[in-house]
Amino acid sequence: MELKKKNSTVVIVPKGTQYLGEFYQDGLPDNVVLNKGITGCGATTSAIIEDRKYVIAMPYKALIINKKEDCVKYAKEYLTVYAGGHNVEDITHFSGNKILVTYDSLPKVVEALGESITEWKIMVDECHKIIDDAAFRPKAMRSILDSYRHFGSFIFTTATPIPEEFQLQELLGIRHIQLKWENVTPVKVSYTPMKQKDLLKNVAYQLKKHQTDDIDGNAHVFINSVKHIKEITEMLIELIGVDKSDISVTCARNSVNEKTIGLVGLDIVPAGKNVAKYNFYTSTAFEGCDVFDATGRTYIVTDGKRDHTKVAIETSLPQIIGRVRNSCYKNEVYFMYSTSIYNDSGDYEEFKRQINLQLAKTRKNVSCYEKIVNDPEITESFSKIISSALCEDVLIHYCEKNGFSVNEMAVKNELYKYKVYHQTYYISTDAAGINNGDVVNVQAQPIEFKEVEYSGAEELEIEKVKRTKRPPFAELLKEYVRVLEQTSSLYGVRPVEDYEKIYPDFKDAYKYLGSDKIRKLKYRKKDVLTSTRLAKNMGARSKMIVAKLNYKQNAKYTTSRIIEDLQKVLREVGLECDKIKATLLNEWYDINRCTVPIKGGKQGNGYKILRCKIAIN
Length: 617
Description:
By secondary structure, the chain is of the alpha/beta class. It has a nine-stranded mixed β-sheet with strand order 1-2-9-3-8-7-4-6-5, sandwiched between helices. The protein is globular and about 85 Å long. It starts with a strand and ends in a 5-residue tail after the last strand. The relative contact order is 0.10.
């Protein structure tokens, strides 16, 4: 069904449709801006599958690496072009029909194709980035606008709608297609404003709950600052006792980032390659990358005091929501932030007024600069100081030929960011209206956020740890085990007795659990003390516990069911504990995390019984 309005056509996508390839069976339309309406609907995959020559331009190298897998999957010969990649000669001799290129490297492809460019169709994927990145990548954005009409045909695709008032002049005359999907359900965005100085500490404290199983599932944290990732992971590792193997970081691979992440002993990995307990992503994974985790929870973190001319994470919400494709929590997002101009400027008219005031100052500054540099009495050093100051203005663009000028794309960018921030987001469902766990898409509509109250006076556990006179339990226990095993002379300085004076429980923990068991528990205080207490008193009771639990091999049980059963059985054998986690089952069974069907056709967290460790007979 089509609804036409001026130069725009609204197309209704019927229920039961999950991918564009199902809807556009004869290929994607030509010479249009296609607003997909939802993420994860397979636009790029459709272009890869089509039997025609495609140049697919993407904003980031990481996205190209992610999409190469589709080329391999569908046996398509492809060429990747980005900084440091294939050169003009490689492109000239390429005989395949799929070229994956970054925005920045598109001029290289245009040059290499020459007159044969008319045989190719260009897809500008994630085209909202032309506006979104205009403030700090104007050259790359300009190269797209200057070259797309040289191709035989083109298509711009995005899941983030760009209102006409913010659209670039070069794209206004193109026919727009807006897809409306019938199978969508709203996403709940719970947002928590807080003081900037408390932001990262609170993020670490929130993530700690995954370590203690107060929150189940894995954490997927989208935060556009490698420095902030370093600070958060330092707190997780040093103050909370998280093992480095439980942390995965995805960001642009360069020497600066590698050094920063390396300071906490971590490596950079491709998006979705190694899903861990804690997964961090910068903007390199915001657009188009697929992550699969059945129990993944999405966190979005933004520091409003950062330089907002870079990727403002709150305006990437349509892309981030649903990035964890198959999660049973895909309609829940936790947004933790400190104040920014996008969430603290009142209504749109007030925000627009502030931008216009800034724009007027910018124009005046550019005019004053031109007078200064032409004044023979002004020294060169003073001129450079003024020039450096102007470069900090987000609304100014500089080129060697023409000097400073107002960046009109950046003005639209600021207004557009505000509009995108104030949206409501939806994920797609299957034909029956159920979140089926196989695919997640996002669609934008007008929004109201739900605020989760935060008390600045609340004492943070991180701060308690920092102020304590005793070193953290996990950190000291790790040293204690190393001393006893004499695996490193570095830890042989302090006598064993010193550790046991600080934490008397260490002696029994090592005696009854051993080093392997303590490592498996990742040195967590609560887990170690609980397991030690049980080990001291269990002995022959293990057979009784297994007999009473009567769990079957290959059977699946929900986390809540396991906890209830353990509490009941341990009480019956005289080993009652205050707090029990389902992972205590490891004492008697080999188990694996899994999802378990629960009421209402939903999926809950649980464990599968692989085998019993205790011989009953």
